[in-house]
Amino acid sequence: MNRREFVGHTGSLLAMGTTGFSRSLTDMMTDQKPLAKIRIRNVNSNFEREPLNPYRFKGSAITDSWQAISLLESDSGIRKIGLGTQGVLWSDSSVFAAHSESAGNALMYAMTERALQLIKGTSFTTPVDLLDTVLPEVLAYGKQITRNPDLRKTFALNALVSVDNAAWLLYAQENKMARFDDMIPAAYRPGLSHRHTKVASIPSFSVGTTAERIKTAADEGYFIMKLKTGSAGTQSEMIEKDIAFLTAVHKAIGHYETPYTKTGKIPYYFDANGRYEKKETLLRFLDHAKKIGAFDQIAVIEEPFEENNDVFVGDLGVRVAADESAHTVEDAARRIEQGYSAIAVKAIAKTLSMTMKITQLAYEKKIPCFCADLTVNPILVDWNKSVAARLPPFPGMTVGLQETNGHQYYKNWNTMMGYHPKAAASWTQTQKGVYLTDASFYAQSAGIFDPSAHYEAVFADK
Prior knowledge:
By secondary structure, the protein is α/β, with parallel strands linked by helices. It folds into two domains: 3-183, Enolase-like, domain 1, CATH 3.30.390.10; 191-458, TIM Barrel (Alpha-Beta Barrel). It contains 19 helices and 14 strands. Strand 1 (38-57) and strand 2 form a beta hairpin. The longest helix has 22 residues, at 153-174. Residues 211-394 form the Enolase C-terminal domain. InterPro entries: Enolase-like_C_sf, Enolase_C-like. It comes from Larkinella humicola.
């Protein structure tokens, strides 16, 4: 069977392997009416570069963000545009280090274009099928053009976001689905069945941010903030800087109160982006937290170790979350076995299709999830919010959780907000640290089904 024959061949493919969290595509479509088989007759792509205020993490910084734009057109004449924000440093820092910032982005964009060429002329039934089919080939192509045999799967998934989003929009219209909830396949609905009326808006502060700046954010109403640790330098230099940072933050905001946690205290969310090489180093950080009375306010520590570090983290006394190391649902399962007790999911960085698989696994394993950002554009913020608002409550919290930092780093954020078809909607604006995900948010599916005049114009003459 060649590639064109098995794209969309739903009767024989498995959504996942043979473990307890496997889902056959037949099971996935249980309780749904028969789905249309969608043939892609035309594809197109483009990108826009958006300048950033330097965002420092993983010992480096990004200053330019490429917005990938993918178009899919079916035999029925329906055209849908999907967006993706490229995160080269986040998804594979080795690619970022080996190339100029623009070259790294160009390599990822080439993988997006490769995916589009692979699916042109083929058929699919669900976007999950489509992703399962193209991901291996796109990853293999990425390894070839980056000359990196160890290219991370997340890099390929990031390249596929705009394609996957376009496929979901096409799938929804072809099957006459008018709401986000209708679009979720039956097998993945349990993990995305909650309805938060508020979702925390979590800003992110890069390494080197002053405690005074973080205090200002707390004064503005933000009650949970992503605090980047893993300072530049040797491991000994890093831990000393991180400890000093923790001390300064706790002194500045440790006494603040919030109605959105069960303790009434501000929670700390630290993200080391894999900078810690040994468990003992992280224990020094945690011991210092205990010493200054900050330990009980640590809600989560995200990705303290590199993904090839198999150290068990379930005995640290704090919730440790997997992020970029949970590339796929199999990787997430492995992290859970290593004691990771939360997963930062990113529909806007690893595709909605893969995110649905991960959130369902987490639901079955009783592992809480929250949504992390990739410094995405305003429309993608609402794709992510559509997931965050439906995740089960995070322990100790009374609202959904979503990191969103684009307003902090994009130089043209206000202009980009104008591209959002529902820019004036109440749910698009942070209000005292939260988004109000009211009935209109769900009824209008966060505006993700509405076309954006700006991005439609990119392909107006195509």
